[in-house]
Write a structure and sequence with these properties.
Layout (H helix, E strand, L loop, with lengths): L14 H5 L3 H14 L6 H14 L3 E5 L2 H11 L7 E4 L6 H8 L3 E4 L11 H7 L4 E5 L10 H8 L5 E3 L7 E2 L2 E2 L6 E5 L13 E5 L2 H11 L20 H10 L3 H21 L22 E4 L3 H10 L29 H9 E4 L7 H15 L1
Parallel strand pairs: 2-3, 2-4, 5-8
Antiparallel strand pairs: 1-9, 6-7, 8-9, 10-11
Helix pairs in contact: 2-9, 3-9, 4-5, 4-8, 6-7, 10-13
Bound molecules: pyridoxal-5'-phosphate (PLP).
């Protein structure tokens, strides 16, 4: 296998390359919405919900306005509010903790597992109090949490799965998003299934919770103009739904492309013979990793990132600061050193390009550049 000999820039993501082969279907989807004039809810949203429920094996799939709003709708449906605590991870995108705080509840951050970056189930069990209302794990970077252990740790507490990065991932117990009270997904353009803007999905196996989420999505109206509860405008656009339907049949192929790129990185890094401990590749512990991100760890992270940038290779740091040390959560009283595994990850992680269209030659170029620097 030979590395890409050029010095052309390598981006983190190339949505234009991804959409090009689907141009006809996506334009047809746009035309359907154009012709129908149905922009809010309607048949495109309903059809997408049915297709995604079937894809995931979920009883209910409810299109919403974003992954963030999926979390908010799920927590609202579980009556999370002021005085409640929700146990979650500090090593995630801000929306996970932000959704809890916006409902007036308190995020209780517990440390992560060093190998997978996901919530450590033993620490979840230890963090339970009388006020704990739910547990909010994140299937980070496209790999499922240890849901069996988490369910045991949560006991009778509902679990809301933040599966924004993990549509299509599985663990031994099944597809993520079908294993807790709710699954929350995002169609932000950088996720494995991305819209042309914002969008999200809530899944559940429970009929009563599904009904609550559906009502919350439309300001709590049931019937229209009569409100027993206060909800919000959490609707998914018909146009986004139609575009996502055109893209969904390609999703499995994209997962496979990401997995092939990840496997090639793994092999090239393993064969490089780097000094022990200089580079850690992602652990693959649970059944099906869909590699929304391929994240390596090294104690020379910042220098490596600068080196790759000089050579035209884009990388990203997910995430540079854990949630428990964000300024907006200062009043929760956490201090540096409280959650050392997450804090150390923030200093060592670097996401390399892994998007499906990347291909072998560019994976080799990225890997060779990383190896040459770390040697
Ligand atoms: C992307 C993401 C979200 C939020 O999704 P949006 O659609 O951007 O609102 C929430 N949690 C995690 C872990 C994410 O990666």
């Amino acid at each position: 296998m030979t590395a890409d000999p050029s010095t052309a820039p390598i981006p983190m993501l190339d949505v234009v390359a991804q959409n090009a082969p689907l141009e006809e279907g996506i334009r047809a989807a746009f035309d359907r919405v154009f012709t129908s004039g149905r922009f809010i809810m309607g048949p495109e949203v309903q059809a997408l919900e049915e297709e995604l429920a079937a894809y995931l094996g979920a009883t209910h799939a409810i299109g919403v306005s974003s992954g963030t709003d999926a979390l908010i709708v799920a927590l609202m449906a579980l009556d999370v509010g002021p005085g409640d605590e929700v146990i979650t991870t500090p090593f995630t995108f801000f929306a996970t903790g932000g959704a809890i705080a916006r409902l007036g509840a308190e995020p209780v951050f517990v440390d992560i597992d060093d190998a997978t970056f996901n919530l450590d189930p033993a620490k979840v069990a230890a963090a339970r109090t009388e006020r704990t209302k739910a547990v909010l794990p994140v299937h980070l970077f496209g790999q499922s949490c240890d849901m069996r252990a988490l369910r045991a740790a949560a006991g009778d507490l509902p679990i809301v799965e933040d599966a924004a990065q993990a549509l299509g991932a599985r663990c031994c117990e099944g597809a993520v998003g079908t294993l807790g009270a709710f699954g929350c997904f995002s169609f932000f353009p950088s996720k494995n299934l991305g819209a042309f803007g914002d969008g999200g999905l809530v899944t559940t196996m429970d009929d009563a919770l599904a009904e609550k989420a559906r009502v919350l999505r439309v300001h709590g109206a049931k019937p229209k103009y009569f409100h027993a509860v206060v909800g919000g405008n959490f609707r998914l656009d018909a146009l986004q739904a139609a575009i996502l339907r055109a893209k969904l049949p390609a999703l499995e192929g994209w997962h496979e492309g990401r997995q092939a790129n990840a496997a090639l990185y793994d092999r090239l890094f393993a064969e490089a013979g780097l000094p022990p401990g200089r580079l850690r590749t992602p652990a693959r512990v649970h059944a099906r990793h869909v590699y929304n991100q391929y994240v390596i760890r090294t104690d020379r992270r910042d220098a490596l990132q600068a080196h790759l940038k000089e050579r035209g290779i884009a990388t990203a740091i997910y995430y540079p600061r854990p949630l428990h040390l964000q300024a907006c959560f200062a009043d929760l009283g956490y201090a540096p050193g409280d959650l050392p595994v997450a804090e150390r990850a923030c200093e060592e992680v670097l996401a390399l390009p892994v998007f499906p269209e990347l291909g072998e030659a560019r994976v080799c170029r990225v890997a060779e550049t990383v190896i040459a620097f770390l040697r």
